[in-house]
Amino acid sequence: MAPPSKSNSSTKRLLLYCVAFVAVTVLTVTLLSRRYSPGTKTPQSANSRISPVVDSSDKAIFSAYGRSESCKSCHESEYRQWRSSHHGLAERPVDPALDSAAFSGQPKIIHASQTSDVAISNGTFQIITAGLDGERRAFAPERVIGVDPLRQFMIPGSGGRFQVTELAFDPNHTNWFDVYGEEDRRPGEWGHWTGRGMTWNSMCASCHNTRLRKHYVETDDTYATTMAEMSVACEACHGPMAAHNKWQNDNHQKSAARAADPTVKHFSRDQILHTCASCHSRRAELTGEFVPGDNFFDHYALSIPDETDLFYPDGQIRDEDYEFTAFLGSRMHAAGVRCMDCHEPHSGKTRLEGNALCMACHATGKPLLPIATQAGAVIGLAPIIDPLPHSHHKSGQPGDRCIDCHMPITHYMQRHGRHDHGFTVPDPLLTKEAAIPNACNRCHADRNIDWAIAAIEKWYGGRMDRPARARTRILAHAKAGTAKSSQELLRLCRTETNGLWRAVSAGFLRRWTGDTNAITALIAATDDHEPLVRAMSVRSLEAVSEFAPANRVLQSRLTDPVRSARVDAAWNLRQSVDTNYPAGADLLAYLRYSGDQPSGAMQTGIFEMDRGDIAEAIRYLRQAVAWDTNSAPPRHALAVALSLEGKADEAVEQLQAACRLAPRDAEMQFKLGLALNEAGRPDDARLALEKTVKLDPQFAQAWYNLGLAYNAAGQTGAAIDALVRAESIDHEAAQIPYVRATILARLGRIEEAREAIRRALERQPNYPEAINLLQSLDR
User: Fold this and answer.
1) Which helix (H) or strand (E) holds 453?
2) Is pLDDT of 372 > 90?
3) Where is pLDDT greater, at 99 or 254?
């Protein structure tokens, strides 16, 4: 049985859309023992599903926390290191002793087209800048985020909000700057300091504080945010310790017993890694309930290399991606290295300076910890490296340090340089082939790529032709959409030993789910031992969720032991999943939690649309558009809902706006073409489809619809050419050669029509329309 064809789309309806993210949500212990059984309970109404209720359990939760001051008397050294660390100062109240310099004697702050000032008035710090209405006025900050190399200030807003300024103070250069550089964000935009993109409650608070509870109330668009303690305190990493304090106080005279404190939780190395990852990652926060010791993938959807520009194909960070994803893809992580091997946890600083840190393992070939692989546990040895001949740079000069080449710095927020934790090998050849940056040319900006390639070839020769280079080429091809990518990805998905890269290959295979081999590989990958691989495989099966084999495996993943994969499956089955059972309930919990941002409102709207409540869908999608007027995806989704409501002209307006916002997005142009046809504007529809295939010449579905449009306009030659092009790209869809056959038959080109029908029947042997057409031609 063949999978549903990607070419079976009507030019009459705007029914297809894509979603850029999926959900992971909370599952209570009491529900874990219950198996999913569809149809045994009646789903809740739409309003009761989405309407949030503020949790009243703060008192019980926070009573388990002892607060950092209670740690000081017994753990003085650790407390002292933490107190002045970036974690200890992650968030704090405004303090004249620390902040007066930022507001005294500062010149005007010129940022893009705007001018702002800072001042002290009657002892109150002020930032004079444009507010939501665009008028300049004085705002009094109450809290500070960060310490070095920049500090941002928090200004109280309406509805329990705090808004974080885009203006930041650099304590090293003692000057103010805009974290967005010359990007001229304006009042009313999502990303302006007064917009939802800079709302502390949902964008910053959880990682700058301890056990934060967001408490968003959808009904009046307000927050009642609470926390156990301000800043990243002791219990942000150790978990709640009030019971520990009590036990130690009760047993303070029993020195032998004190060491056997039953209240202390001893976390594994991976549990510690997951705690660090909860903030040191680019991810969607999906539950708001992570505590130390939990599995990261039970609470977050991790961003990984994909078709977007978040990462480079070799895993290097590109956008503001933090550390975790790159580290997961590294040989260091695969060898069993974890955060605390290199970082002292209380100060956050590295344990040793310079190359001494790396040489602690690489000078001796130190045995590494046992690590789990698909073949079982193995123990690796750190390769022995002599830094001087290895680096080919003079001792003490730039390029001599291991991190100069293997952990290059990328600057974010204008001033914040962050080391890439992928521990990649500089490869100028990949720069030339796929525009992936390399550490050589980052430093030697005055030299060209060919110079760097020649130097690397001279120094390392054939050693550069390594598996990571081959993998990067495959993913670069996949990102570009080249025809051979599917087979390369299939091989990578089966043979790659690193879980992150299996997940990446599974994610890229989403584009090729018209191929049964890709579906088979993704179905197999849903049983991978790594939760990220299972989640990405489930996610990629969304387009073929009605195909019986895929549907069966998605149903089975509704009981996956990890929430991310479980709820990804629920999202794919959202039209029918029972929301009274674990995975469906988790999906609704995520939609409720994320509903304060345009992305959450958009996904909720799509959920309601697919459940059949179009009016409710339009309400949420209009809200998403209003909250982020400069984003194309919410307008795209709203256009789909408007089309289903029969409001074709409004759908066209939304898609035209989306295309202006994303002029290089072929998918948007394609949907605009469908919407224009639906609105009775076939000539405009044809032009939009022509633009689509110029943007993406490998867009088979667009070529197919363009062929239909040409045929409707009487341009049969152009129609046949477009259908041939679609057929050459999509090797599975039977409808493409069938439609071509109908045109050829009408033109009297009978033998060509028979050949096209035979092609259709090779793809789908029981295709009734093709069989009937062939029989009619043979009479």
Assistant:
1) helix 449-460
2) no
3) 99
Query: What are the CA-CA distances from residue 121 to residues 124, 139, 155 (Å)?
Result: 5, 11, 16
Q: Domains in the chain: how many in total?
A: 1
Query: Which one, of 435, 411, 412, 405, lies nearest residue 314 by Cα?
Result: 435
Residues 123-138 have a mean pLDDT of 96
**Cβ neighbours for 250, distance < 8 A, ≥ 6 positions apart:** none
Reply yes or no: is the peptide bond before residue 149 cis, omega within 30 of 0: yes
Residue 185 forms part of a structural domain:
yes
Domain that holds residue 185: 89-231
Question: Is the separation of the CB atoms in 716 and 710 below 8 Å?
Answer: yes
Secondary structure (DSSP) of 154-171: EEE-STT-EEEEEEEEET
Structure tokens at 4: 């549903």
Residues 6 or more apart from 672 whose CB is under 8 A from it? 652, 655, 656, 658, 659, 688
What are 168-204's pLDDT values in tens digits? 999 999 999 999 999 999 999 999 999 999 999 999 9
In whole numbers, what is the pLDDT of the chain averaged over residues?
A: 90
Q: What angle do CA 299, 79, 415 make, to 5 degrees?
A: 65
DSSP string, 563-600: HHHHHHHHHHTTTT--TTSHHHHHHHHHHHHTTTSHHH
What is d(CA 741, CA 711) in angstroms, rounded to the nearest whole number?
A: 12
Residue 166 lies in a domain: yes
Q: How far apart are CA 201 and CA 162, in angstroms?
A: 7
pLDDT in tens, 616-636: 999 999 999 999 999 999 999
The single residue listed with the structure tokens 């650099």 is 170
pLDDT of residue 255: 62
Model pTM score: 0.87
Q: What is the percentage of the chain residues whose pLDDT exceeds 90?
A: 83
Task: Give the residue among 671, 449, 407, 126 at the shortest CA–CA distance from 117.
Answer: 126
CA dist 129 and 113 (Å) reads 12
Alpha carbons 506 and 586: distance in angstroms, whole number: 24
Tokens found for residue 353:
């300076």
Nearest in space to 152 (alpha carbons), one of 129, 163, 128, 168: 168
**H or E stretch including 302?**
strand 300-302
Name the helix (H) or strand (E) containing 516: helix 516-525
Confidence band, pLDDT 50/70/90 cuts, at residue 342: very high
Identify any residues that bridge with 164 across adjacent strands, giving them in sequence order. Answer: 154
DSSP secondary structure code for residue 350 in this structure:
B
State the Cα–Cα distance between residues 218 and 600, nearest whole angstrom.
12
205 in any annotated domain: yes
Rounded to whole angstroms, how far apart are CA atoms 728 and 173?
Answer: 59
Is residue 374, in this structure, part of any structural domain at all? no
What is the mean predicted confidence (pLDDT) over 404-425? 96
* Dihedral over Cα of 179, 181, 183, 187: its sign: positive
pLDDT at 77: 96
Say what angle helices 768-778 and 735-746 make with each other, to 10 degrees: 30
**Tokens coding 26:** 């909370």
CA dist., res. 278 & res. 291, Å (int): 9
Residue 57 binned pLDDT confidence (cut-offs 50, 70, 90): confident
Can you tell me the distance from the alpha carbon of 224 to that of 54, in angstroms, rounded to the nearest whole number?
Answer: 8
Give the 3-state secondary structure of residue 378.
Answer: strand
Determine the length of the chain: 779
